[in-house]
User: Fold these one by one.
Assistant:
Number 1:
Amino acid sequence: MATTSGFSRRKTYNFDQVFNPDHSQDDVYDGLGINNLINKVVEGYHATIFAYGQTGSGKTFTMEGNERELDEGRTSEVHDSLEDGITQRGILELFEQIQQTQKVEKGKHISVFCSFLQIYNEKVFDLLNPSSVGGLTALRKTQTNMSDTSGLRIRWTKKDQFVVENLYVFECQTHEEALKLFKFGSQNKILASHNLNEFSSRSHSIFTLTIETQDIKLNHNVTISRLQLVDLAGSEKQSLTGTTGQQAKESIDINKSLLVLRKVITSLTENNGRDIVPYRESKLTQLLKQSLGGNSYTLMIACLSPCDKFIEENLSTLNYAAKASMISNLPTKNVDPQMVQLNEIKKKVRDVEVELRQANDHI
Ligand SMILES: Nc1ncnc2c1ncn2[C@@H]1O[C@H](COP(=O)(O)OP(=O)(O)OP(=O)(O)O)[C@@H](O)[C@H]1O
Ligand SMILES: [Mg+2]
């Protein structure tokens, strides 16, 4: 619940959990029940976690912790896991749960794959592909026309999904391998300082863990589920951030894709499915399609800035979070349909072979 002091109207919002500045990263992780969400991913469901709020409100801190400050040697030489965000904790939890599942359910073989992308100026870039990252950073530094870099294409698949073409995907055997990739990618993210945030995210990023489970006991059924960890760039007013030039252009694009995100949320909650949901209007909403009104479990974290000056932005964040909580997703297990079909055919062949043998015996 949130109230607005100093305003004649009192506003009330309902949420599953509310955290204040005294809560630790641990409290947030446990309070949000992320272990249950990860359990669902291991069972074969998609899940998405994203933080939403104005610039400087703590989205990156919530999703990724203080990794950057530690890297810069500002606060400590030693990595402090207490400062880890949901992503680092989630990676660890996922591998622990997989190990546990494989111990208990002997017939299950589970593989984990990682990918990491950023959407910058409405273009998709691979954070794990050094050549893509190098080119983009060089271009940005020299202030060359960004339209020269084309980014990766997004393709629409028959399974009603948007897929990024040619994205690097790495198989990880351990949580250390996944963490290393996450760290490598997050160092390649585009950040910039402005009045409200020294390390402001200038791109939206999505770290995806894909879990492929083959169940030998269940006729070799394969489920492919995804955990998407999203760090959005923040909505911002140029008058407050004081951005100019290239950064101002970034601001416009950041605000544009967030506008489409808000349009999608509004369309899903207010139009009762009558209108076409405008997923296609931005790359971000294309890639979050299953998370908003689709078959994924989704957790949205509304980040607020504890300062009266940001009351308007905070109310807007609360309004959209309240709306988003009314979206009904329909989580379904992602059993690979081709595999199911193949297994059914195999079973039929086996049945026919048995019948044939019996008929031959009879003759
Ligand atoms: N709960 C918190 N406790 C301590 N420090 C925090 C907390 N939340 C945010 N911060 C600090 O506030 C600053 C801004 O936070 P952060 O970069 O996460 O904001 P953001 O919402 O990602 O902004 P942007 O949209 O510009 O990327 C960072 O230095 C971060 O370490
Ligand atoms: Mg950020």
Number 2:
Amino acid sequence: MKKLVTLAKDPLIKVSSRITSFLEPEYIYLPIDEEIRQNIDYKKVKKGDLLYSWQGKKQYSPVSGKIVGFLQNSQGLFLKIQNDYREEDSYNGVKEFTTMSIRTNFQSQIKNFPDFDWSKFKNQKTLILNGIEDEPYAATRTFLNKLKSQEILEMLDLLRETFQMNEVLLYLKENDRESIEAFSKYLGTYPKISIQILPDYYPIGHEVILKSYLHLPEDSVLLRPEEVYELYLNTIRDRKRDTILLTITGNAIENPQVFEVKIGTSLKEILKEHIHFKTAEYNFYINGLMHRETADVKEVILTPEIRVLYFMNPLHYKTKPCVHCGKCNEICPLKCNPYLSVNKKQKEASSKCIHCGLCTFICPSYIDIEKFL
Ligand code: SF4
Ligand code: SF4
């Protein structure tokens, strides 16, 4: 593997240090397909009700309210639920799943959670938390680490005990002081958990890169904080996740922020109330400046897959022809030869590509190289 890089940061883009709650949207939109649409009842729902399975995932209602119809836009087909703001939920108390009984009897309880692949923990000696926030200017994972550090540690220790692993290692970046401090506060309670600090390289948080950088065996299990927290909610708390954290940032807005929002909220509702634009025009990117994935801002529905949204001054990104500088090849950590993909349209040259976006990011001609990969 090639040497990883430290990304130069634009001092004009601020990283938010506060969180804003946006938990009362008028409508919630959940992705569906035509087959599900045919079988949907227009009925009242409670928060946490199982509505249907979509692309292998169970979809629960994040609010209480009424199913009132559908939305079709460039992002897909969505079920529309009108929020009644009562937050009535289908949760009936923790019953026998109290924290204490879960902790002492977790091995026998896991059969109650068949959706999770427990087998991957067997025969592992070390459990690894990949808590790295790789995306520059994003604070989504840092906020989760900060707000839910106790819950994340409790779940990790429970997994270690249950599957008889020797230790848990928390990998964090050296510049993520807030996550380091948040976890450090509770480590005295967990002697088998320790923090490992990594340099601020990109894309060190990508699972393939991290395993290679740390020389970890191929079958090592790396968990993300959001996965661990969801597992905590599902098992120890017997609840379903109904909110997500999201960073909205970029040099075209005045007030970058991290938001806690209901899953299925329409982005335009948040922008209207909370974001002040510096310019009338901007470029919009989903989940990373590196990837330049974009969409119609007015049609974006916030799902757990969306972690960061960028609004950037469009003057920075005018595409020009390739100047054959070779920087894309030089920077690729997996030696994929993106130059060949751009200039000879040879897609096979990029079979190892992990879509880290570095080649696109470094290109002086602002070519969206990922489009060719
Ligand atoms: S996106 Fe793919 S080709 Fe480009 S630098 Fe990353 S791994 Fe290499
Ligand atoms: S970095 Fe951009 S301009 Fe340079 S060789 Fe690659 S595609 Fe061409």
